[in-house]
Design brief:
The chain has 166 residues and is α+β, with helices and mostly antiparallel strands. It has seven helices and seven strands, in the order βααβββαβαβαααβ. Keywords: Acyltransferase, Transferase.
């Protein structure tokens, strides 16, 4: 397989990203994202290109001064298992380190994938109570998922909360 290039997403990639994500939404692996939400968050995303075609995407969302969330990693079926997801995660981890983050969080069904990258399942609180109180003020659904709030439980049942120290 030719080498995959991981780069910052652009607005012209958003529709391809939506098309990548949609099969995972149908299989209930990822939560659906409206097109407008993807445009609003495009700066958080990287895409993986193979021969000029977008074959993967993933996002890093900063949650707090030391904590970020890995979101929405998806690859096309034809490159599944070829290391594209790993390349995306590596790029997001590099970006997180560059921002000064020391921990990454994800909420996932793909525990083996994230486990191979040093993420560990957690059941307890990941942030101190005073940070938890600040995060409660966020309107972001991903933050609500991280906090394990009741109003997002229907969307996250069966997912595992995982954290990695950088």
């Amino acid at each position: 397989m030719p080498s995959v290039v991981v780069r910052q997403a652009r607005t012209t990639d958003v529709r391809a990203m939506r098309d990548l994500i949609e099969p995972y939404v149908q299989r209930r692996i990822l939560l659906g994202k409206e097109l407008v939400t993807l445009f609003e968050a495009v700066q958080e995303f990287v895409v993986a290109e193979l021969d000029g075609r977008v074959v993967g995407c993933g996002a890093l969302h900063v949650m707090w001064e030391d904590l970020g969330e890995i979101r929405t990693i998806a690859v096309t079926d034809d490159v599944h298992g070829a290391g594209v997801g790993h390349a995306i995660l590596d790029a997001l981890e590099e970006r997180a380190a560059g921002l000064g983050l020391s921990r990454l969080f994800c909420l996932t069904f793909e525990t083996a994938f994230f486990g191979r990258h040093g993420f560990d399942a957690v059941a307890d609180e990941v942030v101190p109570p005073e940070v938890f109180q600040q995060l409660l003020r966020s309107h972001d659904d991903g933050i609500a998922e991280f906090l394990d709030l009741a109003h997002v439980k229907q969307n996250t049942l069966g997912n595992t909360r995982m954290v990695k120290r950088l």
